[in-house]
Amino acid sequence: MLEQSYFAKADELIARYGRQPSAIIPVLEDIQEAYRYIPRELLTYVADALGIKESKAYSIATFYKNFSFEPKGKYVIKVCDGTACHVRHSAPILAAMQKELGLSAQKHTTDDMLFTVETVSCLGACGLAPTLTVNDEVHPKMTPEKAVALLQELRGEAQ
Amino acid sequence: MRMEDRNSLLERRETAQQALSAYRCRILVCAGTGCIASGSQVIAETMRKLCQDLPNVEVECCGHVPHIGIANTGCQGICELGPLVRIEPYHYQYVKVKPEDCAEIVEKTVCRGEPVERLFYESQNGKTCPKPEDIPFMAGQTRVVLEHCGNIDAVSLDEYIAVGGYDALSKALFDMTPDQVIQEVDRSGLRGRGGGGFPTGTKWKQVAAHTEAPVKYVVCNGDEGDPGAFMDGSVMEGDPYKLIEGLTIAGYAVGATEGYIYVRAEYPNSVSRLHYAIAQAEEAGLLGENILGSGVTFHLHVNRGAGAFVCGEGSALTASIEGNRGMPRTKPPRTVDHGLWEQPTVLNNVETYANVPNIVLRGADWFRTIGSDNSPGTKTFSITGSIANTGLIEVPMGTTLREIIYDIGGGIKGGGDFKAVQIGGPSGGCLTREHLDVGLDFDTVKKYDAIVGSGGLVVMDEHTCMVEVARFFMSFTQRESCGKCSPCRIGTKRMLEILERIVAGKGTLEDLDKLEEIAEFVRKNSLCGLGKSAPLPVISTLKRFRKEYEEHIVDHKCAAHVCEALKQYKVDPDKCIGCTKCARNCPVEAISGTVKQPHAIDPDKCIKCGTCLSGCPVGAIYVD
């Protein structure tokens, strides 16, 4: 059973965006942002409150890439693999981070819930390619070495 | 304070202009996504602290004491040289500014008006460029949409008003009928900047003609999903009021009272600045009920995307605003007839709306003096990839690739050879050396199996493998295909499988024919623009770089040395000293040779792990 505070948060968001079916996406976006994932119970709750069938809410939550049912790590790292970053060799950066953290194309989050590593198709900072973001903060002109150093820095910060 | 009539706008402009001209000095720090990533906010903070410590000076106040302004501006253009700082009224452009440079800038430039020469840009031929227009990258541009980016505080309504902002809206509201506004836009020949190039005036006319509709909508497509494109993001974060003004004029023209801006989630700066700017405009009486006392009402909302490229397609975008899966539907009915919530809807992209204020204010004839006959006006492009100066540019339609890449972009990074440029992102195609003198406008580019698209230009040199690029784009569109129609859902998957086989060295020549066949089929039969254009990168690379495909298949060679599976590790017999280290280290015993004799690698056994390369004490092993 989910803590009461989660439902209170959902109520607050529903009040902000309006109790109508079209509010589903903004409400889910803010839930995702607050908890770094969408708890299934909360999806049921929100669907019910907005007058949407649970199956439809589920179809929406699974359609958009930014929604996740799996909890994400404290630091969500998005390695840009947009065209500009790709031609400036972003793939080795992703590989280096996955290797350092023991992650793969299937496993995105470390067991200690500290890091999630995924790719994104363009952050709009192409002039500084290759880039990545840590919780929305853009880090420019990355290299595999800089990326690994960044992970170590974040690890130190978390302790 | 709320403005109730046209006069109060004029008064507010006067006050704002006085405030702006009374600054003894202004420090304009670029706050585009690129420069923020390079640390421009630390620079702005450091400057603020240093200036506050100056005796007898105030930072940002309009009193009589000498005062200094520090503004966060929109993208100044040359992202690679960031953080960018410009000091007015001296008009000095500093590049790659570091926090430790700030003290010197304040001491010399802010206090004494002297330049800090070491922070000027130095062009490739060694020329120092003190002013922004001295920099070749800036000199070749015509800035209309981006005219304010870098020159004013991005979120200050007063500064926007001071430079003439909202003049166009008040002209439209008080001097023109909605029909006259549409006529002006129509006559200007403005075409949709989102990629299709559909005439904006025609769209507006069709929506305005729906007089029976109880409600109509104006929707702005800011879901700039093409990887490698960031023009619309730069407009939204760099000059949000201009976009809002353009949307308000559109609302007035077609008779819509509600507007939506759909912004992709990856642009947090755009979202927050638009929210702020909308609130400011509402408070000033420039948005909302009874705008400037004219009786006209227009409300604006911001919707964030949730990570789906297909939502850049019109009907998918409106479905997403309605709270559904963002999937395109069959057309007709078209968006202008049945758009958002089944009502007539004007849907244009950011850059299109941002062109509107200037067209209304300066007239269609002025607009037609820029660009080419069939595509008047300017176009913004983001130039990235293997180019010396990456960044955001705006040039007249019809400007040639050569001018963009060599005059503005400074040529290929590291002085290499130009190979191709991908135009229009994953929905576009590649242009090569033979197209360097083609003028870029909607109709011309289409002739070469490419599209202007939203304007992403990714430059590629000889280190780029075109087959790998085609695979990269296909993996993107395949991932982003919404799955509704089978040509796109299945076709992109099959094409991707073939391309993956080829880059792995396992392709056959029949694969190429199959690839062509599927590409044509998907192009013809997909439901929406995403599917129809998904095969373009394959079609254009197959046409222009077929030899490269064949080399991968027949010779198992990737000339650009990109495709991992086709790399061959070899021993240079002249350098090899026969120490046997590589043979001992090789995990699959692919290396043979006797002591003190050159060794050799068996390509059939080699798994390309690179252990031999990194371990060789004399650098005798290389990748071919």
TrEMBL record, chain A:
Keywords, sorted A to Z: 2Fe-2S, Iron, Iron-sulfur, Metal-binding
Keyword Iron: yes
Keyword Iron annotated: yes
A Pfam family of this chain: 2Fe-2S_thioredx
PROSITE patterns reported in the protein's UniProt record: COMPLEX1_24K
InterPro entries in UniProt: NADP_DH_HndA-like (IPR028431), NuoE-like (IPR002023), NuoE_dom (IPR042128), NuoE_N (IPR041921), Thioredoxin-like_sf (IPR036249)
Cofactor entry: [2Fe-2S] cluster
Family: Belongs to the complex I 24 kDa subunit family.
The protein, known as: NAD(P)H-dependent oxidoreductase subunit E
Phylogenetic lineage: Bacteria, Bacillati, Bacillota, Clostridia, Eubacteriales
UniProtKB/TrEMBL annotation, chain B:
PANTHER family: NADH-QUINONE OXIDOREDUCTASE SUBUNIT F (PTHR43578:SF3)
PROSITE patterns assigned: 4FE4S_FER_1 (PS00198), 4FE4S_FER_2 (PS51379), COMPLEX1_51K_2 (PS00645)
The keyword Metal-binding is annotated on this UniProt entry: yes
Protein name: 4Fe-4S binding protein
Organism: Pseudoflavonifractor hominis
CDD domains linked to this entry: TRX_Fd_family
UniProt keyword annotation of Iron-sulfur present: yes
Family indicated by similarity: Belongs to the complex I 51 kDa subunit family.
Gene3D superfamilies, per database record: 3.10.20.600, 3.30.70.20, 6.10.250.1450, Glutaredoxin, NADH-ubiquinone oxidoreductase 51kDa subunit, NADH-ubiquinone oxidoreductase 51kDa subunit, iron-sulphur binding domain
